């Protein structure tokens, strides 16, 4: 029993933190924006505490069952409410602990994360307007005068099952959204028809695109790479066929990409469908 008492808390903590910090394939995708980092930190903190509480409470419960079993002569309590000071303490202490955990240890970081998510006070370096449409995404850079349409590019044969599915099955588009890294980007979402939702897990953001409304969020991508997401509001029969692909690149590369689109827009009336080479 002594051994159990000594090692149980350490084992519970190790198990709990191990589960909370499990590898990204089993948890969140690698975060690349401040919001995504904070969300993951809040999640890990909460999971650690929740798992410690879960195993701790269960351990105490099982120990109490075993210790006060009937065969040892223990009888069931007949009271329905606390009577002694000690009983009141055992009722109020967990209540107080839960208040502190919920509103303090959980509440303060969660509140901060929500404020951070909504923090649009500082001037953005770049504005991107995202318009959901049945069933594609339109991306617009109003200041640069560039607009692109992004459609699913998974071959029909893969969808029909006559060809082997690619590892990015249903997560590929003809024209990905290209964005610069280390810039504060302000996204404004809206929709042409029904409600869609723009969601890229690595950015830690998901915003509904609502017809007639402009809703915003922001991101500062810290790592170049390709990030994939999906429409996450059921929007019709091809809801599962309007993925999101963001290509985060160094600023110079982004400027070149914008310039290529501008040049094309200047020479062609078909500015909405830019050259594949530029993406
Ligand atoms: Cu949708």
Distance between the termini: 65 Å
Relative strand content: 15-25%
Average the pLDDT over all residues and give the rounded result. 86
Q: What are the secondary-structure elements, in order, as H or E?
A: HHHEEEHEEEEEEEH
Query: CATH homologous superfamily of the largest domain?
Result: Cupredoxins -  blue copper proteins
Shape: elongated
Structural class: alpha+beta
Q: Helical content, roughly?
A: 25-40%
| Biggest sheet details | 5 strands, mixed
**CATH fold category name of the largest domain:** Immunoglobulin-like
- The tally of beta strands, per DSSP, is 10
Q: Tally the helices: what do you get?
A: 5
Q: Which distinct ligands sit in these coordinates?
A: copper (II) ion
Question: Which secondary structure elements does this structure contain, and how are they paired or packed?
Answer:
Elements: H1 2-20, H2 34-67, H3 85-118, E1 126-133, E2 136-141, E3 146-150, H4 156-160, E4 177-180, E5 185-191, E6 196-200, E7 205-209, E8 215-219, E9 225-231, E10 244-249, H5 251-267
Parallel strand pairs: 1-5, 4-10
Antiparallel strand pairs: 1-2, 2-3, 5-8, 6-7, 6-9, 9-10
Helix pairs in contact: 1-2, 2-3
The structure holds copper (II) ion.
């Amino acid at each position: 029993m002594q051994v159990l008492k000594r090692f149980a808390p350490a084992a519970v903590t190790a198990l709990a933190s191990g589960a909370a910090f499990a590898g990204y394939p089993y948890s969140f995708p690698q975060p690349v924006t401040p919001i995504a980092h904070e969300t993951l930190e809040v999640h890990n903190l909460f999971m650690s505490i929740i798992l410690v509480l879960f195993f701790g409470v269960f351990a105490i419960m099982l120990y109490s069952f075993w210790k006060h079993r009937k065969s040892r002569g223990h009888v069931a309590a007949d009271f329905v409410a606390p009577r002694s000071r000690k009983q009141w303490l055992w009722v109020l202490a967990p209540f107080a602990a839960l208040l502190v955990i919920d509103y303090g240890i959980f509440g303060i970081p969660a509140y901060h994360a929500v404020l951070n998510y909504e923090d649009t006070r500082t001037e953005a370096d770049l504005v991107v307007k995202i318009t959901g449409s049945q069933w594609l995404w339109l991306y617009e850079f109003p200041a640069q005068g560039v607009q692109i349409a992004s459609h699913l590019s998974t071959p029909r044969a893969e969808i029909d099952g006559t060809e082997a599915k690619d590892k990015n099955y249903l997560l590929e588009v003809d024209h990905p959204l290209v964005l610069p890294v280390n810039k504060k980007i302000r996204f404004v979402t809206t929709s042409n028809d029904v409600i869609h939702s723009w969601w890229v897990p690595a950015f830690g953001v998901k915003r509904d695109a609502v017809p007639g409304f402009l809703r915003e969020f922001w991101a500062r991508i810290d790592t170049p790479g390709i990030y994939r997401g999906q429409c996450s509001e059921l929007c019709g029969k091809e809801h599962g066929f309007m993925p999101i692909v963001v290509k985060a690149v160094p600023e110079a590369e982004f400027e070149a990409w914008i310039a290529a689109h501008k040049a094309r827009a200047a020479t062609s009336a078909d500015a909405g469908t830019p050259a594949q080479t530029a993406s």
